[in-house]
């Protein structure tokens, strides 16, 4: 039963025991009431459309003289930690005719999420997008259009009054510090973007059935490996456009940054699972298989993409870059790196946090998440919101004569990952409260992986949006 809505839902699997209020020792589930639902096709053929299991704790005693143990015990069974325990497992099977057809057999498992709340989530996100679009439209149609008209004016008096973003035209396209790492973030962001978009499209077409357990994870892993070509291509192209000359360096960084970090965290999680003797620990064969896919497919594709991206024509700036960097005036507190990033991140997070609640509930409470239509719309809203927030703050920075927009756009867009992690902390202490140390490491290890990928994805979206915006406005003015 869902605590908040008091709605019944079917979870994947069942618990080994259950806690009772006022008792320290949980009851051990050793009896299973199995209900098999079948649908009558005709007088001869019947099809199973559902299997439900209700675990029960019964202190059944084993009788050697009886042919089989009975299920008549009513007292629950408690295990003794200081002695050996004899457990008698029993089960009962009941066949129930159902009106559900074979085509609709998954409906009872997929109706766990209230559609009204989902529509509220979309409306909430849409309001944020409309608000940001209105602000962006106001800037582009009034302030920016007025600036361009004044900057292009022939009046000498107007030319002497230039201020704001035109004054930094000779520095705005200057390669930033650490541009090789920025190129890697951009390339990895492209890789994640195409992976997420393609996965959602495949899910929308119905190719990822909930009856095939692990199909979603497998599809995402394979698509991520395939789109390694996109990571290498875009990273090398941007690196070369910034003036980089070491193709080998950018290839090594691209192949190791995101995959290497995620692999290290996964190894830590797997070691904790092995130390806890958990069956969820990945066997050595699976780990070797993933490494083989990485070395045999992903790395060669990344190298090939980097080769073609490096050979592609570089992105030339629309204005000339000054040899001497311009001095940046002191910035107001709200345009400094940390405050501006926090402001931008909270708006992006506000567009997705309700959907994030459903996803977290589905993962940690064994619910079936299959509303990919809503998720696709939320992903589109995430892209639009991230782009608009980053463009707005980039414009404000340029008006304040701060031309260091490259990393700022990544931090501003990616700051929403910090709020995702903070929400994960809140979710852990308010909903989960896992007791063991291994569970703590596993939970926050996975949250760190998700937030890293989310930072790279949204950071790349913010950079691309800001880059297109800046090229557009500086191409529209006349430079002496």
Automatic annotation (TrEMBL):
The keyword Transmembrane helix applies. Its main location: membrane. It holds the Pfam family EMP70. The chain crosses the membrane at residues 119-141, 192-209, 221-239, 251-276, 288-310, 341-364, 370-398, 410-429, 441-470. One of its GO terms (cellular component) is cytoplasm. It comes from the Eukaryota. One of its GO terms (biological process) is vacuolar transport. It is a multi-pass membrane protein. Coiled coil: none annotated. It is found in: Membrane. InterPro entries: EMP70 (IPR004240). Keywords: Membrane, Signal, Transmembrane, Transmembrane helix. Belongs to the nonaspanin (TM9SF) (TC 9.A.2) family. This is Transmembrane 9 superfamily member. It comes from Coemansia thaxteri. The lineage of its organism: Eukaryota, Fungi, Fungi incertae sedis, Zoopagomycota, Kickxellomycotina.
């Amino acid at each position: 039963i869902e605590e908040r809505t008091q709605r019944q839902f079917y979870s994947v699997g069942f618990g080994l025991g259950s806690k009772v209020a006022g008792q320290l020792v949980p009851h051990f589930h050793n009896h299973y009431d199995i209900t098999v639902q079948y649908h009558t096709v005709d007088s001869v053929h019947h099809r199973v459309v559902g299997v439900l299991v209700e675990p029960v704790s019964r202190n059944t005693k084993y009788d050697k003289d009886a042919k089989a143990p009975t299920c008549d015990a009513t007292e629950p069974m408690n295990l003794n930690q200081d002695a050996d325990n004899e457990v008698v497992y029993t089960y009962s099977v009941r066949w129930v005719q159902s009106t559900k057809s074979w085509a609709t057999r998954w409906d009872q498992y997929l109706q766990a999420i209230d559609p009204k709340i989902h529509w509220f989530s979309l409306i909430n996100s849409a309001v944020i997008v409309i608000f940001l679009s209105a602000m962006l439209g106001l800037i582009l149609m009034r302030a920016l259009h007025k600036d361009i008209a004044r900057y292009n004016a022939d009046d000498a008096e107007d030319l002497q009054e230039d201020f704001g973003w035109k004054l930094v035209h000779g520095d705005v396209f200057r390669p930033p510090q650490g541009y090789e790492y920025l190129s890697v973030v951009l390339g990895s962001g492209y890789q994640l973007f195409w992976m997420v978009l393609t996965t959602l499209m495949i899910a929308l077409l119905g190719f990822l059935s909930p009856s095939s357990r692990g199909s979603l994870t497998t599809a995402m892993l394979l698509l991520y490996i395939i789109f390694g070509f996109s990571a290498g291509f875009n990273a090398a192209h941007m690196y070369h456009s910034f003036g980089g000359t070491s193709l080998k360096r950018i290839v090594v960084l691209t192949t190791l940054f995101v995959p290497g970090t995620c692999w290290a965290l996964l190894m830590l999680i797997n070691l904790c699972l092995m130390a806890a003797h958990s069956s969820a620990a990945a066997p050595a064969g699976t780990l070797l298989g993933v490494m083989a896919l990485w070395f045999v497919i992903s790395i060669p594709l990344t190298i090939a993409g980097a080769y073609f991206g490096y050979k592609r024509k570089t992105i030339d700036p629309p204005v000339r870059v000054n040899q001497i960097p311009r001095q940046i005036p002191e910035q107001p507190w709200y345009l400094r790196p940390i405050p501006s990033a926090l402001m931008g991140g909270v708006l992006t997070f506000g567009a997705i946090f309700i959907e994030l609640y459903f996803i977290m509930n589905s993962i940690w409470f064994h619910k079936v998440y299959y509303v990919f239509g809503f998720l696709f719309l939320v992903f589109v809203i995430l892209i639009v919101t991230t782009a608009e927030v980053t463009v707005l703050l980039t414009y404000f920075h340029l008006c304040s004569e701060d031309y260091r927009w490259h990393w700022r756009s990544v931090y501003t867009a990616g700051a929403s990952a910090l709020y995702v992690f903070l929400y994960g902390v809140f979710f852990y202490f308010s909903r989960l409260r896992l007791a063991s140390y291994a569970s703590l490491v596993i939970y926050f290890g996975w949250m760190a992986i998700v937030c890293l990928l989310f930072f790279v994805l949204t950071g790349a979206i913010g950079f691309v949006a800001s880059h297109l915006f800046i090229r557009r406005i500086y191409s529209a003015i006349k430079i002496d």
